[in-house]
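== Fold encoding ==
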Amino acid sequence: MLYYHPNTLFSHKRKPQMGTSTSSTLSLLSIILFLSLSWAASASDSIHGAFLQCLSTHSQSSHPISAVLYTPDNSSYSSVLETYIRNLRFNTSTTLKPRLIITATHKSHIQAAIICSKKHGLQMKIRSGGHDYEGLSYVSEVPFFILDMFNLRSISVDIKNETAWVQAGATLGEIYYGIAEKSKTHGFPAGVCPTVGAGGHFSGGGYGNMMRKYGLSVDNIVDAELVDVNGRILNRKSMGEDLFWAIKGGGGASYGVIISYKIKLVKVPETVTVFRVARTLEQNATDIVYQWQQVADKVDDGLFIRLTMDVVNGSRSGEKTVRATFLSLFLGSSDTLLNIMDANLPELGLQTSDCTEMSWAESVLFWTNFATGTPVEALLDRNPQVLTHLKRKSDYLKKPIPKAGLEGIWKKMIELQTPAMTFNPYGGKMAEISPSATPFPHRAGNLCKIQYATNWDEDGSEAAERYINLTRQLYSYMTPFVSKSPREAFLNYRDLDLGINHNGKNSYLEGRVYGIKYFKKNFDRLVYIKTKVDPGNFFRNEQSIPTLPY
C-alpha cells in the first residue's frame, strides 16, 4: 500500500519569500513524483499479480500450489514468517517483509517457484530452519519472496546399509531421533542445536561434537537431490561430481534448491560420556585454558572438549571475572575418559561425579542444556529454547595463545562484558581430510575454530549497533592470535562484516572478499562451477558465490 500526505500534492498556503513560479513548479514536481510513485506501485502490483498467475499456471492439479501460498493479507502470513525467524534482529517493524511465502510440500512447488521467479524478476530466498545468523534466508533489501522448506522434512533411515535420506526441511533433532528409533549404535556427525534445519547446515559444512572422529556432515554425504536453475530435478549422477562437490560446503543456495541429502550413518557406542565443568580465573582458569590448547586437538579422536569463555560476577561484590566452561562428549565409558583426562588435562581436576553416562541421542539434549533425564522426544521440538537478538563472528586458531596473551584477553573481555568466545577443537579426522576434498578448507593446521557470540534482549537499532560493536571490538583484539592472509572464517557462522555482494557489475570482486575467507583456494573452483550451472546468477544472496565477470 502506498501512503502519502495530501499536502505533498498541493500547497494552499504560499510562503512569503516564494514567487508564484516557484510555488507552481514545486506543485508540479509533487504531482509528477506522486504519479511516478503510483506508477511504480502499480507496476509492482502488476508484477506480483503476474507472478501469482504464473505459479498457478505451473501448479499440478494433484498438488495445487495455491494451498501453500501466504501473502500479507492472509491471516496466517505473520505467524508463518515469524515461526522460523531465529534472530530477533530481523523481526522488526522496519525489516522488509516478503511479498509472498511459499511453504512447499511437493517438488513441483519448488520448480514453479524457480520458473516464475526467473520470469518475473522477483528474488527468491530459500529457508530451511531459519538459523542463518544474518537472516539471509528470510531478509532482503529488494522485493523478494521466501521459499520455505519446513514442510519437506521426511527422514528415511536404512540401518542395513547405514544410510538415510533426509529432506532439507528436517531439523537435526528430527534426524537424530529418527536414527535413534532404529538403532542405539548409530549416529550422524552434525550440530548440537536440534532446531537447526538440515538444508542450510549440511550445505554450509555442518560441524558437531563428533567431527574429530568422523569429520563434518559434508564428509559423510553420499548423494543429494536438487532443483537447478532450469527447474530440473537432479541427483548426484545427473548433476555431476562438480556440482555435487560444490553443494557439500559451498552453500547450496548459490547453486539450486536442495530437496534432500543422502547421509552415511556412523557408529556410536551404546553408552557415551558427557561432562560440563566450569572454572573461573580464581580457580586457575588461565593455566587450564593454556593446557587445553596443548592437548585438545591431539587427544583421543573420540573425545571432544568444547571451551567457552564468558564474563560472570566474581567472588567479591561488584567485581567481574572470566569463566571457562569445558563441555565434553566422549565416545566411550567414564572410566576410560577419566584416564585420558588425568593424562592430558589434569589441571581441570575432573572427577567421577562430573561425568554422566547416557545414550548418544541423550547426549545431544545434554549439550543443548536440557535437564538430565529429559526424554529423547524433546529432539522433535522445533521451538528453540532461547530466542533472542544475536551477532556471531568466527576465527581459526593455528597455535596456542601464550599465558600473557590469555591474560590480556581476559582483561578485554571484562571490559566489554557481553561477548563470549567458544573454542571448538580440531585435529583427529579433521586433520586427515584434504582441504580440497570439499569446499570447506579448514583442515590440518587448525588447533580450533573460534566463535564470538553476543546475545541481547533489548529491541531497537541503537541496542543492536552497541552490541554488534562490542563483538567487533573483541574480534579486533584477537587479530594477533588468529589466522592471517586470509583471516579465515566459517560459512555457517555467517558474518556480513566480512563483505556484502550487491550482485551487480562488481559481483565477482565483492564475492572474492568474503569468499577467500570462507573457502580459501576452493573459492575459484566454486566460482567456476557457479558460472557453469547458473551463468545468470539467479541463485544469489548477500554472500552467495558469484559468477566469473567474463
About this structure: The first strand starts at residue 69 and ends at 70. The longest helix spans residues 20-57. The two ends are 40 Å apart (CA to CA).
